[in-house]
Amino acid sequence: MREAISSILAPECELLGWVDDGHKVLETVVPARPEVILLDISLPGLSGMSLLPELRSLLPKAAVVILTNHSSVEYREEAFRRGAADYVLKNQAHSALLPAVRQAARRLLPTAS
What domains can you pick out in the chain, each with its CATH number? Predict the structure, then answer.
């Protein structure tokens, strides 16, 4: 999956790294201060769903895009309630991930007054 994500995003995005354990997300991601975070719901140790509100609190300017296998409406709605900018299914990543990341990054741009 990492190779697929890299091939999709690398032409337009700087990929800062990968974290395989939910407990390591906060200690790794927060200091890096990324603009967009890809977060899987199913992480060992601490779920992405549990991490989402804390990431939003610690990095309020960062957009979190959920990338997951969980297709249920309940997961999707809960992710948005917890602050996700978008929700992409892994089986649709080839066509949906880059547009979701682009849209999330656009939301971060200051608006002209």
Answer: 2-107 (3.40.50.2300)
